[in-house]
């Protein structure tokens, strides 16, 4: 009896499943579009006409499309989200004849939610690819090609005006343009060290005389000086951890290497001069870093629990358990880190300011490949880059409710509002399309965005700027390599094992996992890219 | 049972059937929510299996994307890691099945001998760890094993005059730590079914045995354990079906994702997770899922077949 019932039950379920299987298949509509036609020659005047025409048509028809914009923050949808979206919508309706909605998700679920929304056809027109990753988005076909029918040329003149041409090259794959970078710090000052002022005072270190000029916020120095400071700090505060680095960003924030294609398996060890894809781990820079860390670890500067430490460096400073940590630098860094640490800090920098090939494609804004109205989406995105009102609403919320102006023209919290009770304080302005036109927050210099532009323009850039690589043909090698690297990474880079023993061991395993094949494929792609773009 | 009771009425079969249906209808209705859940959660996504064989593009949809053959499976077997992750996954699960079953039966027998409030308190306390999330468990373990502030290093090894151990970088201890943590976390839950089965046994058997002079130990070995056999076989068979899956929280969170421990903590689930974290390739993760279910299916069929040969009454189907 029991068995009969079981059999019956299974049969029934199988039957229903088969039916369900048939039902689900027919949902994907064919959205075949004509092959992209080259309209780049059109020129601005024509483009302006097309854009104005699209707006006029939309307004005349009286049928306003809605554009949904999605991005992530760290706490989930803020209370004021719909109000801000309505404010922006008022502007887009007036300017473009388009309604506007916001979808803000917390960072933990953003990637997962977005993938579901993008695969299921739920409406989202504009989104930031951060956390999902640019190449995965391209490979999964989530992104709309903005060169198709000259979409960007016709409807995104403001965007073209906000960037240099080479800045838009980082999101080009083949002939397709899949995203618009965010206006942010594109370069990073490599190997910055942040130390609270009170600790430096306690060991009697004279930092004030080390600034190259009075306006500088960063002291440019060398590893020996830092070594000396750490030794004194260790002596002064034996119970505190002397030095710590967030283990996920050690290579990317300390070394002047370009991890072309977005991973560390085959990099440019001399990115300003050579396009030769070489192995990071047998390179001198990596070895020196690991040896330095090994030395510091042996000297007791690094916590025994560093490998499993998950608290942010700044949280550890705040808690009083840490003396110094590594950070990437940029204009405004001293203020930023002082705020995060809750105490004034001094920023040292060992490496140069450096711009990698991933500078423009880590978090570009993109249009969903399945969007119903790409023109409306493009025009809204264009407005986000050019309209100060929209930029301020996106970055800071509503004037009078979330922020007010100070007398000297800074933005600051409105009366009775602070970071904890504001209905729209996102802390993700680095993800907004254009924070450069959204004003300066109190504490930052008024000219911070000019400084930032200068910093971006002056930083040393890799020769491979704009190179992207689709590694999906090598995903088997990639997963194996990631697993080998993960096994050694934290121990090596935080100095728990002797690099002269462990690096060759890791290298052997990486080779067995297909490092050479992977690097050769990368080199081949890079060569092809260089030939096509005239980079020698 | 129902069949035997109504055996004489077999001629009047349609009326009998109606009566039977009427009688069992409430039971079917009771089972309905569970079946609906099973259907939605386990059967409706089944057609998605094709994803493992596709070159997925969102624009074309799951069924419209081009076929990729077995390409998505390649990474699971491409390296020497394949051996390690398979060994770890199956090895740990085998040990878990044996250790957990033995201890669960042991605890269930102990609990069944208790009476009154005592029993409820013990049972709740033993069950508690099962309800904790793996992240919390990982920090409880960390509180013991932290190199600098951990209980073991500071309050046990130090007073004994031994050198502290960097637990998260010393792999030889981890097979034991993981088995222990798994046991501690799961024992309360695992023993529930055994306990309820033992409570259902006919008390008369034990009374008769006691009158004949059987000791407690003899009662356990001669009555309880033999009667428990079908339950043990059934639960073990079900566990065997999941032998190729690993508890992600246990193998990823509890060792704090420490690289030095990979050779003893990397299982198929953590390998796939680490490898695809940045790649975000859903076809490759589907491939891993299909591979796991397939091996699980084969194993459970084989195990069931073996059981059916040896003891037909205990087989699942």
Describe the structure.
- The complex is a heterodimer of chains A (536) and B (317).
- With 536 residues, chain A is α/β, with parallel strands linked by helices.
- Chain A has two domains: 2-185 and 360-396, 3-Layer(aba) Sandwich (D-Maltodextrin-Binding Protein, domain 2); 188-358 and 459-536, Periplasmic binding protein-like II (D-Maltodextrin-Binding Protein, domain 2, 3-Layer(aba) Sandwich).
- Chain A is 43% helix and 12% strand.
- Chain A has 19 helices and 15 strands.
- Chain A has helices spanning 2-23, 43-61, 81-96, 107-120, 134-139, 151-155, 157-162, 197-202, 223-236, 250-254, 284-298, 313-318, 333-341, 374-386, 388-396, 448-458, 475-493, 499-512, 515-533, and strands at 66-73, 99-106, 126-128, 172-173, 176-177, 188-196, 218-220, 241-244, 322-329, 345-349, 353-355, 365-367, 403-405, 411-413, 460-461.
- In chain A, the strands form four sheets. In chain A, strands 6, 7, 8, 9, 10, 11 and 15 form a seven-stranded mixed beta sheet that branches. In chain A, strands 2-1-3-12 form a four-stranded mixed beta sheet. In chain A, strands 4-5 form a two-stranded antiparallel ribbon.
- In chain A, a hairpin with a 5-residue loop joins strand 13 and strand 14.
- The longest helix of chain A has 22 residues, at 2-23.
- Chain A starts with a helix and ends with a helix.
- Chain B has 317 residues and is mainly α.
- At the A-B interface, helix 1, helix 4 and helix 17 of A face helix 2, helix 3 and helix 14 of B.
